[in-house]
Amino acid sequence: MYLMDYHHHTNHSFDSTASMVEVCKRAIENGIIEICFTEHFSVNPLAPTYGHMVFEKYLDEIRACQEQFNSQLTIKAGIELCEPHLLKNQYDEILQPLNLDFILGSVHNLNNQKLRLALKEDHPTAYKRYFNELYQMVSTADIDIIAHFDLMKRYAYKEHGLYVFQEHREKFEQILKKAIDRNIGMEINTSGLRTGLKQTLPSIEIIQLYKELGGEILTIGSDSHTVEDVGANIAAAYELAKHCGFHYIYKFEKRQPIPVKIV
């Protein structure tokens, strides 16, 4: 099977010390055929990701890895944007000249507060606020894929519990229909399988709903921040995609989605 892992963080992100070369080596060891680096990036001075990324250094290192592992691994250049629907003009100005392959869109903050703080401030409304912000993101942001759709549960499940799917189904449908209309896909993020959460992000119900609504563009990512997590649970995510009725996982080249059949 042509396994792809389209979500990795290295020392070009504020919250990782992994090296690109070691990530590539581990991907090859784990049978991954194609990866995409997706470092955190924000133009918001109040976000923790602000000021860490140096694009010239980042892209130079990707090119060096592409040369080094040319015959063993396909390596794409991507980015994970924090709240890309906010400060949109600033994002466009910086990113358009870079000719990236792939852009993930994420909501990591609500009103310039980390999700953990938003939960602490008002946990009864936190999920609703988060999903409303996600809708705003897919309505206007220039992104390819929604990253970890229900990320709020990562911070809520221990103390406040998981959301109830039916309580938010109408909002999920709005988000997914808007994404489909704008040709924005969704990822199956395996990071939750490595924690007590024991779920992918998003949950299977959201993946199934995306399929029911006509969604097709699906990527899979380990969301690795350490070398040890590169490729973690990727094969299981492929099986989950098949179970939900998907026949293709997508790769990207210069922002264009390309289907790869699940065997």
Give an overview in words.
The chain is an alpha/beta fold and 263 residues long. Helix content is 38%, strand content 21%. It has helices at 20-29, 55-68, 88-95, 115-140, 152-156, 165-181, 204-212, 234-243; strands at 4-8, 34-41, 74-82, 102-106, 109-110, 113-114, 145-146, 185-189, 218-221, 248-253, 256-261. The strands form three sheets. Strands 1-2-3-4-7-8-9 form a seven-stranded parallel sheet. It has a two-stranded antiparallel ribbon with strand order 5-6. β3, α3 (88-95) and β4 form a beta-alpha-beta unit. The radius of gyration is 17 Å and the shape is globular.
Compact summary:
With 263 residues, this protein is an alpha/beta fold. It contains 8 helices and 11 strands. The strands form 3 sheets. A 7-stranded parallel beta sheet has the order 1-2-3-4-7-8-9. It has a two-stranded antiparallel sheet with strand order 5-6. A two-stranded antiparallel ribbon has the order 10-11.
Which helices and strands occur, and which strands form pairs?
Elements: E1 4-8, H1 20-29, E2 34-41, H2 55-68, E3 74-82, H3 88-95, E4 102-106, E5 109-110, E6 113-114, H4 115-140, E7 145-146, H5 152-156, H6 165-181, E8 185-189, H7 204-212, E9 218-221, H8 234-243, E10 248-253, E11 256-261
Parallel strand pairs: 1-2, 2-3, 3-4, 4-7, 7-8, 8-9
Antiparallel strand pairs: 5-6, 10-11
